[in-house]
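Give me structure tokens for this 540-residue protein.
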Amino acid sequence: MTIDLFLKNKIFNALVSLKLDVLLDEIIIERAKDDNHGDYASNIALQFSKKAQLKPKELAEKIVQVINMDDLEKIEIAGPGFLNFFLKPPLFQKLISKIIKLNQNYGRGLEKNFKINVEFVSANPTGDLHLGHARCAAIGDAICRLYEFAGYDVVREYYVNDAGAQIEKMGESLRVRYLNEFGRTLKMPEDGYHAYDIIKVAKTLKRLYGTKLIEDNLENKNIFINEGVRLLLDKIIEDLKLFRVTFDLYSYESVIRQDNLIERTIEKYRPFIYVEEGATYLKTTMHGDDKDRPIIKSDGAYTYLLPDIAYHLEKASRGYDLLIDVFGADHHGYTKRIKSSLLMQGYPENIIDFELVQIVRLMKGDEEVKMSKRGGTAITLNELVGEVGVDAARYFFAARAASSHLDFDYNLALEQNSSNPVFYAQYAHARLSRLLEDGKHYNLDLSGSLLNAKAEINLLKHLHDFPLFIELSAKHREPYKIANYIQKLANLIHLFYTECRVLDEENKLLSGARLALCKASKIVLANALNILGVSAPKKM
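Here you go.
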């Protein structure tokens, strides 16, 4: 039982004895911001004073009179009626044995029997992944890891847009680059793909096919498209694996367009479509969109929205409890169209939710870096990871709320000191590892009964909060709060190391107790870092 729930039960039972009707979930417990004001606090007396027909302070006094004081040092009434709880140290001390026993499962939530599909990245296979894709990858994967650790059943999905106008343009651009390899100069298509990654694919096709693709015909056109998609997608998958991101499922737009699925989708929406000036519109304004959206153009071609609707319908039909799409912030209007299309087919309001990830800028000091040194285009995920490493890239991307713009501080990511939050956290783990290695001849005391110093108790309190952080961060889909937890934990570990002598031949019993605290802290720190996809090194 978490301390949060432990105190809620005490307050709940006290209110029941006072004949007050209250639900356990209505009781709010918060960590005290100042140790002088106790360990935890509640505003319950202010919240229910009207119901009790008492002044808040009077209700607080009555609660204190009847509450069960087991494991509590004291309760103070502050201000107009806040309750400040001071807990006895054994409540925290006995946590050490629990953490060490559970190890990688400490903080893990109970199985929720709730299945979630998270679609993220889903970049078109028209080139390398760039910074925006990288941030979506880091946040999307952290969300999945967080959900899984909290007890949800998660499926990671990548939707491959391997059909439509953009893919045809990629094929045309690839053909131009291929012919360039043979000394032929052609004009690139309007809005074509000029990036270096297309040139690399062209070189690969020259090696694989020689001169066989020079002739301009339908067969060769399809080869440029199909081989381009295959090679570019393989590169994307490879780069994501290096970024510690993998997917359970890949869905393809080309498959969605087969077997009359699009046509069957149109039939499902007959009651909600109309034709105007030759184009077919879907009545998305029925469910909050600012205007109806075209799904078939006047020339009979499908808009990009129609196969996306068909894909989401297919995805929703698989029996998930929740669909989550992680998109760039420029998809804000698009979300209403997709949600509206699902509501039209009878799905509940909460079947889908969206995580909109704001833009990221790569900064070196006060200067924004926009261009790749190698390709003359936007900085790629592969280039960023090659320079700052996977750990720094993932941590920096995930440590900020998705809804916030991010200036990625390149210089800070390379710092090897406490100003770099990744280094600071990883160094705490390495420090604990070294202490445990140096102190392996001591017998660990898992009881925690000798741990009474302020730095020890504060560290234990934070370790105790980890399961609650997991539950709340998963509930609100906020992996950045795990980064906040990590920074505070690292700070408390470093303070503990500074203020408490861990290895002391003259006091082996205390050393054994402190080493057990080191081991518990190391476990929790590694578990938290893993949720962000960041390694926990033993040496630095």
